[in-house]
Amino acid sequence: MGQLATLLHGHRIAARLSQEALAEAAGVAVRTVRNLEGARIARPRRRTVEEIANALGLTGEPRARLLQTVHAAGAAPAWQHSSLPPVVPDFVGRRAELDQLIAQARGLAARSGNATVVVSGQPGVGKTSLVVRAAHLLAAEIAGIACHIDLRGTDLEPLSADQAMDQLLAALRGTGGGWTPHSPGERLALYRMLTADRTGLLVLDNAATETQVRPLLPTGPGWLTLVSSRFNLGGLDSTCRLRLEDLDEASATGLIEEIVGADRVSAEPEATRELVRLCTGLPLALRVAGNRLASRPSWSVGWLVERIRDESRRLDLLHPGDTRVRAGLSLSYGQLPQLARQTLRRLALLPWPEYSVAAVGQLLAVDVDEAEATLEMLVDASLLAPAAAPGRYVLHDLLRVFAAERLAAEESPADRDEAADRVRAWLLGMVEVAGRWLDPDPGRQPAAGAEFGSGQGAMAWLTAERHGWWWAVRQAGAAGRHRDVIAAAEALYWYSDRYHHVIDWPELFGLAVAAAQASGDPVAEAAQRNALGWAQSVVLGRPADAVTQHRRAYRLAAAAGDRRTLGWACFYLVGVRYRDGDLAGAAETCARALRELTEAGDLTGRLITSYSLADIRREQGDAAAAVTHLRRALDDWRAASAAQPASRQFASRPLTGWIRHRLGRAHADLGQWTEAIASMGAAAADFTAGGDPYGSGEAALGLAEVLLRSGDSRGRRVLLDAIRDFEADGDRRRAARARKLLGSLSDLDTSNCR
């Protein structure tokens, strides 16, 4: 062994490589290189030394001398050998997971002397490739056998523990063989005896259950067992676990490049990106797609993308040779209980990025406990993934395609429609209940029920389920359920005021306008045109389009004699004259809105119109009158809201914030900087307490402006933080406003929308 250590050290120094660099180049562990140079491995593996020789670039006589030292170390006992399959040559994008797996194995072995690591993930995610790669690297550190057993966990009849043990006993006893007991209990006793005083590495690939694996775990110290499975095998003790996810875009692109060549990938970067997306980063699908391209040099990447973009053909195209994506999914699907199979295929009815337990309960017509148990079963089978938020789940895109196939084949159109209608009706009903919690008017209390205990709960539900209820509104519109669409739009009005960009609000309120027209309801049409105009102005930044909507709303409401909707139309039209510089006209229109809303008994509308009148007074140069007006409005709103329970304060706090926000600006105009800064800070607190991120952003801009105008340098920090938050939310318009304010205070946008 001294000769191998001496030669290896000399060659490494001559190559100017550190032990770490040599290990990286050879694809072995650093510890292996150190142990070889330190002559601490009694029987080095020839394959390991060959990989090191390749990394050193050795050829001819120097290479032959180095490899001869492996033979000189002496023959291994008959039971020491390897049945590990070869590693895949294009191992891309799993370096972090490989390092983590090896670190887990070494750490557990150091603590207990016997390590078991389970690698789990969905079919085709690359579990076997990772485990085999790790096994080759770790085998050089472990004296004894290195054995691989395919437990065939995805087959209809997986290998039994007893059948697997027959293979292991044959491997442990070597070519000499010997008598093998007939009874399973005696074979197990012999296996435990043989593994008790030996060491080695065992790969149990493609395991189905803990029951299959548990009897095969070696008993003695010095053993490392690597298990791959679709399931996390949570019932195994003293085990580390690693779950594999899809490859990220960069790694997936690297895998395609490794298979088809860098030139073809670089020539079509957009098509390659789309190919990665359609394959969802699943290594098996990427390999299949890459092999198709590699075997067809005349195909462009774009040509293949166009062919597999069609979901009805995608899985058919991803099955050259014996590498079939659908086959692996079908085997996993076939092993599920009936309800789990129904769950997986029915998820294809709901084109959402993730699912809640409650929604799936409606989909299946079961209670939430049964729904959760079934979803967790699919997670354990790696056919579903837990989302970032607890209690929510994500379906892989290729699995969605497979689920849609099974749904069409196994369920009638009537059953599919009934399930989808049940989810839609539940979502729209919940939207109406949630929306009542966000209405700031103290006179409109939420409906009794146990769905939400607070405005915060209603807000959280609306945000979490936004993809679902938006789908439900569209479904209702397409089905001609006009009243459902109108009711949802009315319920979501105050939620839209807080969250401007969670869905396409102009489209939603446009659907509501169309539904009201189809229903022949001019009052509803007028109300929804007001909401559509708000969305066009605030969300899209198209005030000219908004004016058209508000004027039509005004005419419809006036013809119907609906003073409340007429008052809101007047309120929105105030902004037209305000932007045109017609302050007298704006004041006149605002006064009209105030009269109509007061007569209609709309407290919220009256308050909002009242503080808009204060804006006009400020713009006219009478900041003192604006302060008086706003203080009176604040007192009125506090008095109206005082009797509300604490759970209802959440809905009214943003309006308090808007009054204080305006007070801050009016105080600033008067040079009252202490009062201005305090009002802006209080407004920010109100918006936070009321769950209003839009208002919080406006408060940040207002506070920064006041600080900068007062000569306080903290304003710059507030602006920089605001820009960061706006950009994180994708709010480019307000990010631009904040940057403009950083450079100049002369063109401030001081208007607010509601």
UniProtKB/TrEMBL annotation:
PROSITE patterns: HTH_CROC1
InterPro entries in the record: AAA_16 (IPR041664), Cro/C1-type_HTH (IPR001387), Lambda_DNA-bd_dom_sf (IPR010982), P-loop_NTPase (IPR027417), TPR-like_helical_dom_sf (IPR011990)
Pfam families: AAA_16, HTH_31
Domain named HTH cro/C1-type: residues: 12-63
Protein known as: Helix-turn-helix domain-containing protein
